[in-house]
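# step 3/5: fold
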Amino acid sequence: DIRLNLGLHDGVNGNASDPYRVMINLGVSDIHSEYERLRAQGVEFIRVPEQEGWGGWVATFQDPDGNILQLLQQPEGD
């Protein structure tokens, strides 16, 4: 099960000048164990797992090419 959303934003156009402009979220069921597993493999995180105001959890890292990726754990019940 994969979900990929692409959308247009009326306030953004042209070449990306900010690496945070597009982020791929990788859905996980246990963000803390995935965070530890990836760290053990040498992945360096920009943002450790933190709970968002809407209830979900996010952790952010860069791939070897500098692309920004996020682990995303939805709130329970979603």
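# step 4/5: annotate
The CA atoms of residues 54 and 62 lie 24 Å apart.
# step 5/5: archive (pending)
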